[in-house]
């Protein structure tokens, strides 16, 4: 049975990326109000110049506290509350051996993957505490596994998993549930372009690169953004699940 989202005011962040954009198209027209936010412009998010009814896109850099506060002020002013926060902001950004990793790049990875999640969780409480709500963060299997030359990314995502647990414990008294989805490599359009570049660089076929990326999975098929939608909808509407991070890894073996 389809999860009923029709009476909810939803904030969806990181919609410039593959997962966030897939979630936009899954939710638009099915919720009472859909507010999206990213650094992208609205036309890039919807691939259209026409805005659906009850849809608002606000362009913000949500790694900055004043921007997150401004976003929440906008929601409070226009809608009075927030029922669901779905945060998909994230990215590994850089690839360096640990001994060569620049400190500023390290801090940027944490700002994107952890600071934004912390600020969004913190600031959404004042819009949810009177009537409860659900918060869903996208984590990553890199929180558990080792991704070569991406130590800060794995560290930040592991910390996000711990943030989910602490937030669930502290916010339960407000009837706010906090959960996460931790996928393995997701074959988004951006990642497909990276596969093409890597195939040329390493003189391999694109199919071989894809097989290499899936070699630790028990189920040998690509994971796409759309595959995460049913779990996202469950966690966005649940009344009984909190403090959990669900691994969507197609049986990926820890490495």
Structure description:
It contains eight helices and seven strands. With 255 residues, the chain is an alpha/beta fold. It has two domains: 204 residues, Rossmann fold, CATH 3.40.50.720; 35 residues. The chain has a seven-stranded parallel β-sheet, sandwiched between helices. α1 links the parallel β1 and β2. It is globular, with a radius of gyration of 18 Å. The termini are far apart.
Order of secondary-structure elements: EHEHEHEHEHEHHHE
| Secondary-structure class | alpha/beta
Q: In percent, how helical is the residue content?
A: 40-55%
CA-based shape: globular
Number of strands: 7
Query: What is the CATH T-level topology of the largest domain?
Result: Rossmann fold
The count of helical stretches stands at 8
What's the structural domain tally?
Answer: 2
CATH class of the largest domain: Alpha Beta
CATH architecture of the largest domain: 3-Layer(aba) Sandwich
Strand numbers in spatial order across the main sheet:
3-2-1-4-5-6-7
- Span between N and C termini? 36 Å
CATH level-four homologous superfamily name of the largest domain: NAD(P)-binding Rossmann-like Domain
Radius of gyration: 18 Å
Q: Tell me the β content.
A: 5-15%
Low-confidence stretches: none
Largest sheet: 7 strands, parallel
The overall average pLDDT, rounded, is 93
């Amino acid at each position: 049975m389809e999860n009923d989202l029709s009476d909810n005011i939803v904030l969806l962040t990181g919609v410039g990326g593959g997962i966030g954009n897939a979630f936009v198209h899954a939710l638009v027209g099915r919720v009472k109000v859909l507010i999206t936010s990213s650094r992208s412009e609205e036309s890039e998010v919807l691939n259209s110049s026409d805005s659906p009814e009850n849809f608002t896109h606000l362009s913000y850099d949500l790694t900055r506290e004043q921007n997150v506060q401004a976003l929440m002020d906008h929601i409070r002013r226009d809608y009075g509350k927030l029922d669901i926060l779905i945060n998909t902001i994230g990215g590994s950004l850089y690839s360096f051996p640990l001994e060569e990793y620049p400190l500023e790049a390290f801090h940027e990875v944490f700002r994107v993957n952890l600071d934004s999640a912390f600020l969004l969780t913190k600031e959404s409480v004042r819009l949810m505490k009177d009537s409860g709500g659900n918060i869903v963060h996208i984590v990553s299997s890199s929180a558990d596994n080792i991704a070569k030359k991406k130590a800060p990314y794995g560290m930040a995502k592991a910390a996000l998993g711990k943030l989910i647990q602490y937030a669930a414990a502290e916010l339960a008294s407000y009837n706010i549930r906090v959960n996460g989805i931790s996928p393995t490599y997701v074959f988004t359009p951006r990642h497909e372009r990276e596969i093409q570049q890597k195939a040329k660089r390493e003189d391999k076929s694109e199919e071989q690169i894809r097989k290499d990326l899936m070699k630790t999975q028990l189920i040998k098929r690509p994971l796409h953004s759309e595959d995460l939608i049913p779990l996202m909808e469950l966690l966005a509407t649940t009344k009984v699940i909190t403090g959990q991070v669900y691994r969507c890894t197609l049986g990926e073996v820890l490495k």
